[in-house]
Specification:
Blueprint: E1 8-14, E2 20-28, H1 38-47, E3 52-58, H2 68-84, E4 88-94, E5 99-101
Parallel strand pairs: 3-4
Antiparallel strand pairs: 1-2, 1-3, 4-5
């Protein structure tokens, strides 16, 4: 995803053993943004009986530090996941040869 010219938001659907069920592209945006709504994130998780999800998106700029919008959507999706009993295990932002993990940074609560 690091070579993409647009921001792309994907989810990894996981089973009860945290094994990958499916990768789903939720949205494709413009150079600096991608529109994401909880409906589009959790619909594939429900349809595919996912037990948990991981959020992934790229930053075409190569800088993987989260924007304020990234932080806001992560918090929102984490809260929706708790309500729906489909936990968000991580949100990973991909840059050029690097990544940022919300879980590793303790930012998923």
């Amino acid at each position: 995803m690091r070579h993409l010219k647009k921001e792309v938001f994907k989810i990894l659907l996981l089973n009860s053993h945290n094994q990958l069920i499916k990768e789903v592209t939720v949205s494709e945006g413009i150079l600096t943004a991608s529109l994401v709504h909880p409906r589009e994130v959790f619909r594939p998780a429900i349809i595919n009986n996912a037990r948990a999800i991981i959020l992934i998106h790229n930053h075409p700029s190569g800088n993987c530090r989260p924007s304020e919008e990234d932080k806001k959507i992560s918090k929102q999706l984490f809260e929706v996941g708790e309500i729906m009993d489909i936990p968000v295990i991580d949100h990973v932002i991909l840059g050029h040869n690097t990544f940022f993990s919300f879980a590793q940074e303790g930012m998923l609560k």
